């Protein structure tokens, strides 16, 4: 548990430590003892002199339990920011540009990634090589513990201190893993404990919890309740589900979609106006993605996908973002469309979006109707309060187009309003620069809407659950 | 353009001496180091006699190819990293010169095949695949040198240059390191029958890890093509400073598994490893490869020898802890290199000396054999006479003490019927005095009453 402040550095160490439990008996106490002993051994390795930290993308190797480093110019008392500087200066030119954008989005926090290695050439003992044979029947339970721990250090902190704290974090994570494994033992089968980092509201900051693989979030609710109480988190929205895990800046997303492109934009200047934006993380879904050519008919489907991605990434559902076919099938299943609908290129509207959200994700939505586009100017209060209360993206369909509203800039006094729009009609690649420059994600005024057409808005409601 | 062979002058001397012997047909092997441009030969050794007193055969037909190649295989175990068996030589009378070429070809290919069979690593594209066949006519003293590409059995021999030079290996840098080993192989119910196979499979997995390990030489990662000596300067004596080798394993992602085992094998301890490089201009990557190969070789040689020994002595694989043969080094006369050998617990310097004489045909005085590089921990306890209760389970206990292993698990498994011993004894790397033992273990102090001083050490200690 570490506090994070704006000008801090995160040190993240990752590795895979082998755990080997030799179970001579299969009764509970035997197994417990064997597991504890196995973890003892792993902890001993981590605190031994053979542990090596390798700073990713650099030639630096550090022995945290010995205090010696490899690269010249680095010593225990070197400040963290100097270490960061050396890493940055080693970046190729291509990296500099994107790192600037990252910094803009995430403040001054940046991450130093470290890999764990074990040195073989510094034996802690003097013993000739031997072959030992045991003929006792036993059960072997073996796994690689995916350690992943984090400490936050101030810019001026010495790295020697930061690294020894990291070793301490490793040990306490191993202890957490031990309790997770022991809690979920059944017979001789052990579940692999997996660490997740969560970025909780200030002043708590970054927190790491260990969950057993294979146990779904639903079964861990009581544990999460305890944690919610411990960290004083509100009881009505998820913070500690696996999907809520903190995504470290600089780590690529496995699926390749852009996340929250609106964060790269700056607000337009509007007198006396306040922004009311979507809360949390969503992925940008648009035409031509996933090798699906839905140009001309799929805009509402894409907006729906963006909304589904929001619910998945905030932890309200474990269901992955549905494909066009799955969306169409859901509508057939609820009886809204005939079975010939599946595989067709027919449009859908906000009512269908509401139906699919309910069918596939169990999410209820409110429908807002405006008879003319020009009346959207009066919906400021309604939309602002939606973003404040629910924080979910809104799908708006009207005329022949569908869009996603990610927020409004609204002045209570003047009634002036701007809309933050995510446009699903974009057909290019996942290029943040292009998307923001050309306004595919951008702030629009009232002139964006067709003043005569009628519009339906689908406002998804956030379930009150953890 | 053929390859060039730079040969140590002492080898010339040796070959000349061989030619003065009556026998008309002498075979042997050539040892040295390959490099991309040329190879360096530092030692020649004739094939040992099969049985004492027999007269050497006069015709090539009498030559036992299997014997010659077996000699090559055993010698390759005695070579530290960087050095290898480069080929075969034959000294024959003039009338056999033509036939000798055929024989050389057969021998070179057979030897390479035999030696590479036992290896845990394979030759890469970058490795030199030419091996040499040298023929010397006993009458004219003329030497004909040809190379064979072991990757292409159908290729024809290419002529090569054979040149003598003194001090070939004089300034060869050496890499040394101690490698800690802790390998665990579970044995299934069925595989506990065939120990050797299980060990082989386990070692192959370990070798893959070793090949992908991170190697630092003097603090710099060796995955680059940078020269070894970048940034280093000779010290006052004109010698290059020692190289510091550090090897680390990145953590491996293995899948979780739970299995029932009939037993287990553990290979543990510290290996002393060494590799010679022919030039400071070698790339760091090649240097790392040389030392890694030595690490793999030394472990596979030892386990091979251990099982061979078991077979000869009809052992049952033993239970509990068995020491693997210890690596000892001996300097090669006239050079700055050392070769190595493996000594079983019941052997001494005399046996090692005999083997050097038989295999490599040179005499080495016993005191020059360096047995201090590796340690059998028992030596620490040589001077510490400890008491133990003459119980068969205690026999295990004391042997484990001697070999310096953490006794925790042994106690748990083997002393099930010893009710008092349910705690853990701390790791016994440091010698224990009898007092210490008595204090940490009240039961033992009572057992002191029935004392019996015995040394489980062997005479060589």
Structure report:
- The complex is a heterodimer of chains A (466) and B (461).
- Chain A folds into 2 domains: 8-122 and 139-244, no CATH class; 261-460, Cathepsin B, Chain A, CATH 3.90.70.130.
- Chain A contains 10 helices and 16 strands.
- Chain A has helices at 28-46, 80-89, 93-106, 159-183, 221-230, 299-313, 324-333, 350-361, 380-389, 432-437, and strands at residues 8-23, 51-55, 61-63, 68-69, 110-119, 130-134, 138-154, 193-200, 205-212, 274-277, 365-370, 394-398, 401-410, 417-422, 441-444, 455-460.
- In chain A, strands 10, 11, 12, 13, 14, 15 and 16 form a 7-stranded antiparallel sheet that branches. In chain A, strands 4-3-2-5-1-7 form a 6-stranded mixed sheet.
- In chain A, strand 13 (401-410) and strand 14 (417-422) form a beta hairpin.
- Chain A is elongated and about 90 Å long.
- Chain B is an alpha/beta fold and 461 residues long.
- Chain B has 2 domains: 4-165, Cytidine Deaminase, domain 2 (3-Layer(aba) Sandwich), CATH 3.40.140.10; 174-226 and 241-250 and 260-368, no CATH class.
- Chain B is built from 11 helices and 17 strands.
- In chain B, helix 2 (65-76) crosses helix 3 and helix 4 packs antiparallel against helix 5.
- Chain B starts with a strand and ends in a 14-residue tail after the last helix.
- Classes of the chains: A alpha+beta (466), B alpha/beta (461).
């Amino acid at each position: 548990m570490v506090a994070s402040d704006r000008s801090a550095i995160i040190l993240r160490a990752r590795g895979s430590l082998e755990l080997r439990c030799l179970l001579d008996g299969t009764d509970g106490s035997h197994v417990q003892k064997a597991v504890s002993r196995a973890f003892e051994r792993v902890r001993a390795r981590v605190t031994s002199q053979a542990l090596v930290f390798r700073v990713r993308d650099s030639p630096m190797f550090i022995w945290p339990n010995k205090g010696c480093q490899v690269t010249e110019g680095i010593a225990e008392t070197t400040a963290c920011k100097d270490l960061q500087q050396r890493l940055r200066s080693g970046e190729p030119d291509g990296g500099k540009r994107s790192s600037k954008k990252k910094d803009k989005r995430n403040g001054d926090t940046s991450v130093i990634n470290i890999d764990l290695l074990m040195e073989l050439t510094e034996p802690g003992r003097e013993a000739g090589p031997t072959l030992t044979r045991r003929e006792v029947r036993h059960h072997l339970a073996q796994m690689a513990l995916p350690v992943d721990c984090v400490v936050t250090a101030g810019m001026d902190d010495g790295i020697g201190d930061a690294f020894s704290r990291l070793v301490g974090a490793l040990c306490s994570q191993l202890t957490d893993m031990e309790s997770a494994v022991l809690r979920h033992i059944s017979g001789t089968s052990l579940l692999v404990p997996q660490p997740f980092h969560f970025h909780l509201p200030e002043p708590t900051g970054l927190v790491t919890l260990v969950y057993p693989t294979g146990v779904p979030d639903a079964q861990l609710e009581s544990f999460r309740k305890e944690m919610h109480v411990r960290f004083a988190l509100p009881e009505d929205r998820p913070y500690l589900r696996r999907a809520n895990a903190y995504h470290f800046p600089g780590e690529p997303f496995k699926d390749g979609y852009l996340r929250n492109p609106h964060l790269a934009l700056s607000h337009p200047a509007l007198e006396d106006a306040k922004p009311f934006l979507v809360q949390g993380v969503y992925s940008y879904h648009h035409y031509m993605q996933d090798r699906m050519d839905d140009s001309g008919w799929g805009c509402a489907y894409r907006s729906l996908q963006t909304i589904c991605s929001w619910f998945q990434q905030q932890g309200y559902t474990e269901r992955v973002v549905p494909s066009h076919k799955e969306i169409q099938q859901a509508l057939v299943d609820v009886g809204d469309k005939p079975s010939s609908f599946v595989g067709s290129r027919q449009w859908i509207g906000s009512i269908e979006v509401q139906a699919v959200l309910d069918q596939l994700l169990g999410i209820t939505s409110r429908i807002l109707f405006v008879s003319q586009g020009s009346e959207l100017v009066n919906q400021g209060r309604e939309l602002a309060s939606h973003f404040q209360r629910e924080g979910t993206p809104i799908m708006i369909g009207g005329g022949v187009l569908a869009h996603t509203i990610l927020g409004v800039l609204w002045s209570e006094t003047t009634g002036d309003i701007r809309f933050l729009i995510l446009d699903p009609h974009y057909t290019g690649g996942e290029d943040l620069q292009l998307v923001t420059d050309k306004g595919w994600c951008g702030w629009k005024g009232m002139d964006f809407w067709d003043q005569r057409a009628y519009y339906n808005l689908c406002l998804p409601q956030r379930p009150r659950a953890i | 353009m053929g390859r060039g062979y730079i040969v140590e002058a002492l080898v010339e001397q040796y070959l000349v001496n061989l030619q003065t012997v009556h026998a008309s047909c002498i075979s042997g092997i050539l040892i040295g180091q390959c490099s991309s441009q040329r190879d360096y030969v530092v030692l020649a050794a004739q094939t040992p006699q099969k049985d004492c007193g027999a007269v050497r055969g006069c015709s090539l037909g009498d030559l036992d190819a299997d014997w010659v190649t077996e000699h090559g295989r055993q010698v390759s175990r005695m070579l530290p990293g960087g050095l290898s068996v480069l080929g075969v030589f034959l000294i024959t009378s003039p009338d056999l010169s033509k036939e000798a070429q055929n024989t050389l070809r057969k021998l070179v290919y057979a030897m390479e095949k035999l030696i590479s069979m036992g290896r845990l690593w394979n030759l890469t594209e970058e490795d030199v695949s030419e091996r040499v066949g040298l023929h010397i006519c006993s009458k004219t003293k003329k030497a004909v040198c040809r190379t064979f590409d072991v990757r292409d059995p159908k290729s024809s021999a290419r002529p090569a240059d054979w040149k003598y030079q003194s001090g070939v290996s004089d300034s060869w840098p050496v890499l040394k390191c101690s490698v800690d080993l802790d390998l665990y192989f579970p044995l299934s119910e069925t595989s506990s029958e065939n120990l050797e196979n299980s060990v082989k499979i386990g070692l192959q997995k370990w070798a893959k890890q070793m090949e992908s390990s991170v190697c630092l030489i003097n603090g710099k990662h060796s995955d680059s093509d940078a020269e070894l000596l970048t940034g280093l300067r000779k010290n006052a004596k004109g010698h290059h400073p020692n190289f510091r080798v550090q090897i680390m394993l990145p953590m491996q992602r293995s899948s979780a598994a739970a299995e029932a085992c009939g037993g287990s094998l553990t290979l543990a301890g510290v290996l002393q490893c060494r590799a010679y490089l022919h030039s400071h201009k070698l790339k760091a990557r090649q240097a790392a490869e040389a030392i890694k190969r030595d690490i793999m070789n030394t472990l596979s040689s030892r386990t091979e020898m251990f099982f061979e020994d078991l077979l000869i002595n009809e052992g049952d694989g033993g239970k509990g802890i068995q020491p693997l043969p210890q690596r000892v080094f001996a300097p090669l006369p006239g050079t700055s290199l050392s070769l190595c050998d493996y000594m079983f617990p019941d052997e001494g310097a005399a046996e090692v000396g005999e083997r050097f004489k038989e295999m490599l045909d040179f005499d080495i005085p016993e005191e020059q054999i360096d047995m201090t590089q590796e340690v059998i921990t028992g030596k620490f306890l040589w001077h510490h006479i400890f008491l133990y209760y003459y119980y068969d389970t205690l026999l295990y206990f004391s042997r484990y003490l001697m070999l310096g292993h953490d006794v925790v698990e042994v106690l748990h498994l083997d002393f099930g019927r010893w009710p008092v011993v349910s705690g853990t004894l701390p790791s016994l790397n440091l010698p224990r005095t009898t007092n210490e033992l008595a204090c940490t273990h009240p039961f033992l102090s009572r057992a002191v009453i029935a004392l019996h001083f015995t040394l489980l050490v062997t005479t060589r200690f």
